[in-house]
Amino acid sequence: MLNRVILIGRLAQDPELRYTPQGTPVCSFTLAVQRPRGGEGVEREPDFIPIVTWQKLAETCNSYLSKGRLVAVEGRLQIRSYEARDGGRRRAAEVVAQDVRFLDRAPGSQASDPAAPGFGQEASLPEDDLPF
After folding, report:
1. Which of 47, 56, 58, 116 has its CA 20 to 30 A from that of 64?
2. 61 contact partners, CB below 8 Å, separation of at least 6
Protein backbone atom coordinates (compact mmCIF):
# COMPACT_ATOMS: atom_id res chain seq x y z
CA MET A 1 0.00 0.00 0.00
CA LEU A 2 1.14 3.52 -0.68
CA ASN A 3 0.45 6.73 1.21
CA ARG A 4 2.63 9.47 -0.28
CA VAL A 5 1.88 13.16 -0.70
CA ILE A 6 4.02 15.75 -2.51
CA LEU A 7 2.97 19.40 -2.35
CA ILE A 8 4.47 22.72 -3.43
CA GLY A 9 3.06 25.89 -1.97
CA ARG A 10 3.56 28.89 0.27
CA LEU A 11 3.21 29.07 4.03
CA ALA A 12 -0.08 30.71 4.97
CA GLN A 13 1.27 31.72 8.40
CA ASP A 14 4.41 31.44 10.48
CA PRO A 15 5.17 27.93 11.79
CA GLU A 16 4.19 27.06 15.37
CA LEU A 17 6.61 24.98 17.44
CA ARG A 18 5.35 23.01 20.44
CA TYR A 19 6.69 20.17 22.55
CA THR A 20 4.98 16.95 23.59
CA PRO A 21 4.90 16.11 27.33
CA GLN A 22 7.92 13.87 26.63
CA GLY A 23 9.82 16.85 25.17
CA THR A 24 9.59 15.90 21.47
CA PRO A 25 9.45 18.98 19.19
CA VAL A 26 6.48 19.20 16.82
CA CYS A 27 6.02 22.05 14.35
CA SER A 28 2.86 22.77 12.40
CA PHE A 29 2.07 25.18 9.59
CA THR A 30 -0.47 25.59 6.84
CA LEU A 31 0.55 25.33 3.21
CA ALA A 32 -1.45 27.24 0.57
CA VAL A 33 -1.50 25.17 -2.63
CA GLN A 34 -3.34 26.30 -5.76
CA ARG A 35 -5.88 23.94 -7.29
CA PRO A 36 -5.64 23.18 -11.02
CA ARG A 37 -7.65 25.48 -13.28
CA GLY A 38 -11.27 24.56 -13.79
CA GLY A 39 -11.45 26.10 -17.25
CA GLU A 40 -10.76 29.26 -19.18
CA GLY A 41 -11.53 32.40 -17.23
CA VAL A 42 -11.93 30.49 -13.97
CA GLU A 43 -9.86 31.93 -11.15
CA ARG A 44 -7.58 29.47 -9.36
CA GLU A 45 -8.45 28.84 -5.73
CA PRO A 46 -6.02 27.70 -3.06
CA ASP A 47 -6.38 24.75 -0.71
CA PHE A 48 -5.00 25.31 2.78
CA ILE A 49 -3.37 22.07 3.91
CA PRO A 50 -2.15 21.50 7.47
CA ILE A 51 1.43 20.20 7.68
CA VAL A 52 3.07 18.62 10.74
CA THR A 53 6.80 17.99 11.23
CA TRP A 54 8.54 16.21 14.10
CA GLN A 55 11.84 16.28 15.96
CA LYS A 56 14.86 17.88 14.23
CA LEU A 57 12.83 18.65 11.10
CA ALA A 58 10.34 20.52 13.30
CA GLU A 59 13.09 22.67 14.80
CA THR A 60 14.61 23.37 11.37
CA CYS A 61 11.25 24.42 9.88
CA ASN A 62 10.51 26.65 12.87
CA SER A 63 13.95 28.32 12.62
CA TYR A 64 14.05 28.99 8.87
CA LEU A 65 10.46 29.19 7.57
CA SER A 66 8.01 32.06 7.79
CA LYS A 67 4.77 33.19 6.22
CA GLY A 68 4.99 33.41 2.42
CA ARG A 69 8.02 31.12 1.98
CA LEU A 70 7.85 28.68 -0.94
CA VAL A 71 8.44 25.03 0.01
CA ALA A 72 8.01 21.51 -1.31
CA VAL A 73 6.70 19.01 1.23
CA GLU A 74 6.86 15.24 0.94
CA GLY A 75 5.15 13.02 3.48
CA ARG A 76 2.04 10.99 4.19
CA LEU A 77 -1.63 11.85 4.66
CA GLN A 78 -2.89 11.18 8.17
CA ILE A 79 -6.54 11.22 9.24
CA ARG A 80 -7.03 11.34 12.99
CA SER A 81 -9.99 11.75 15.27
CA TYR A 82 -10.16 13.70 18.50
CA GLU A 83 -12.67 14.86 21.08
CA ALA A 84 -13.67 18.51 20.67
CA ARG A 85 -14.25 20.87 23.60
CA ASP A 86 -18.01 20.42 23.19
CA GLY A 87 -17.56 16.66 23.72
CA GLY A 88 -18.20 15.68 20.09
CA ARG A 89 -15.86 13.57 17.99
CA ARG A 90 -14.08 15.35 15.14
CA ARG A 91 -11.77 14.21 12.34
CA ALA A 92 -8.77 16.07 11.02
CA ALA A 93 -6.67 15.49 7.92
CA GLU A 94 -3.04 16.61 7.83
CA VAL A 95 0.20 15.82 6.05
CA VAL A 96 2.97 14.44 8.25
CA ALA A 97 6.09 15.68 6.48
CA GLN A 98 9.25 13.60 6.18
CA ASP A 99 11.04 16.01 3.82
CA VAL A 100 10.72 19.76 3.42
CA ARG A 101 12.63 21.45 0.60
CA PHE A 102 13.08 25.20 0.79
CA LEU A 103 12.49 26.62 -2.70
CA ASP A 104 13.39 30.24 -2.02
CA ARG A 105 15.60 32.24 0.30
CA ALA A 106 14.34 34.04 3.35
CA PRO A 107 14.12 37.81 2.85
CA GLY A 108 17.42 39.37 3.90
CA SER A 109 19.29 36.05 4.17
CA GLN A 110 22.84 35.83 2.93
CA ALA A 111 23.63 33.31 0.18
CA SER A 112 26.86 32.47 2.01
CA ASP A 113 25.20 31.48 5.34
CA PRO A 114 26.09 27.76 5.56
CA ALA A 115 23.70 27.12 8.46
CA ALA A 116 20.58 28.33 6.67
CA PRO A 117 18.94 25.93 4.23
CA GLY A 118 18.43 27.87 1.03
CA PHE A 119 17.09 27.45 -2.47
CA GLY A 120 16.68 23.80 -3.33
CA GLN A 121 18.15 22.55 -0.08
CA GLU A 122 16.39 19.76 1.72
CA ALA A 123 15.57 19.46 5.39
CA SER A 124 14.66 15.86 6.07
CA LEU A 125 13.92 13.59 8.96
CA PRO A 126 16.16 10.52 9.17
CA GLU A 127 14.25 7.21 9.19
CA ASP A 128 15.49 6.36 12.72
CA ASP A 129 14.03 9.64 14.08
CA LEU A 130 10.45 8.94 13.01
CA PRO A 131 8.07 9.25 16.00
CA PHE A 132 5.97 6.18 15.09
Report:
1. 47
2. 15, 27, 29, 53, 100, 123
* Chain segment 19-53, per-residue pLDDT in tens: 999 999 999 999 999 987 767 777 778 999 999 99
**All structural domains of the chain with their residue ranges:** 5-34+44-108+115-125
Architecture of the domain defined by 5-34+44-108+115-125: Beta Barrel (2.40)
Please say whether the beta carbons of 52 and 80 come within 8 A: no
Distance CA 39, CA 116 (A): 40
pTM as predicted = 0.77
Within 8 A by CB and 6+ apart from 104, the residues are 69, 70, 119
Mean pLDDT of 110-129: 52
Strands 121-124 and 16-19: unpaired
